[in-house]
Amino acid sequence: MLEAAARLPVDALVEVGKLLRADGRADLIDLGVGVYRNEHGRTDVPGVVKTAERYLVENQSTKAYVAPDGDPEFNARVATMLLGEGARGGSVVCAQAPGGTGALRLAMDLIAHASPGATVHLGVPSWPNHAPMLAAAGLRVEVYDYYDLERNALAFDATIAALQAARRGDVVLLHGCCHNPSGADPERAQWEQIVEIMAARGLVPLVDMAYQGLGEGLDEDAAAIRMIVERLPEALVAASCSKSFSLYRERVGMLLVKTDGDKAAELARSNIQSLARLNYSNPPDHGAAIVRTILGDAEQSRLWREGLDGMRLRIKDVRRRLAGASGGAFDLSFIGKQKGLFALLPIGAEDVEALRRDHGIYMARSGRINLASSRALRTQAW
Ligand SMILES: Cc1ncc(COP(=O)(O)O)c(C=O)c1O
Fold this sequence. Notes:
This protein has a seven-stranded mixed beta sheet, with helices on both faces. It has 13 helices and 13 strands. Helix 2 (47-59) crosses helix 11, helix 3 packs across helix 11 (286-295) and helix 4 (99-114) crosses helix 10 (262-279). The chain has helices at residues 12-22, 47-59, 72-83, 99-114, 130-136, 156-165, 188-201, 218-221, 223-231, 262-279, 286-295, 298-325, 349-359; strands at 29-30, 92-97, 119-124, 140-145, 147-148, 153-154, 171-175, 204-209, 235-240, 253-258, 342-344, 361-362, 368-370. The protein has two domains: 2-46 and 300-380, Aspartate Aminotransferase, domain 1, CATH 3.90.1150.10; 62-295, Aspartate Aminotransferase, domain 2 (3-Layer(aba) Sandwich). The chain is of the alpha/beta class. The radius of gyration is 21 Å and the shape is globular. Pyridoxal-5'-phosphate (PLP) is lined by residues 34, 99-101, 127, 180, 208, 210, 240, 242, 248, 253.
């Protein structure tokens, strides 16, 4: 049976990683992988994470299952991180999930259950996992141009045109901040326009929030989702704690669903629990317990935010230096205006290949680079 299966597409970045690991040259530069690295090329375990782990070793009294929608305290704390203090009512439902990916898949399953075969509008380029995940969940994908590769800027007119052409009840997948791969986020006035059209046309947002705190700041980066959740009757937000807490392999994320009222919230909660149960039964606890422990302690929270600020400032500094160093025919000034971990270099696949072959510089075929990356450390392969 298994040998007759069609081969599923492999994520292109996994292929890049394989080539990198097989490359025997010294001093390789890895700009491909999507994790934050410090100036020494390492993705360290933050001190606050170690402190929380020590606390958990001493104080955790059981390893019994958590509920299908996870730990209520973790959910409440991450909801506050996303929406701000006091911004929650009975119509918001949360579910801890295995990473941002798990939260996205839960959201897609919920959409597919509520509206079988629903159409999801996806601005491209996007995170390469979005389209195949949507298809795997049984949803129809319609793409539009989100980013203008000629101007190295948001294709705002095309985005607006796509929203205006969408049908009532369609879903729109949006990046909450720090767009991956382009780093081009809408300005506040542009978000206002997006949300206004979505409200007028009855469109449902599915917001991917994987980089909160790495753009302009924890609250600043949440401005768009706060506007969306405040102004639209329904919204789904898939949040990841992988990058902002450096907990990548622990798989920590959360789905937040804003519904149209308490009755819809109760139904959404029940359906989310059932869908989680059918998939992974209940989410992994360890990473979420770390996040809950950090966010539940004022001093540890302060230290965590300080570390997050440090990551953001390093990314901004790299952006500033790259933008400043460019000139002439190769203008990278746009990188200084964009946000988050990634930028799209205006180069073709042959240039990407030549950089790898001739200089040992690795990146995605699209020309996406991780700004917080540097030397490839063989001890920290992904
Ligand atoms: C845009 C985007 N969404 C979701 C994710 C998934 O995050 P996680 O590792 O928490 O599943 C990533 C990870 O790279 C991402 O870039």
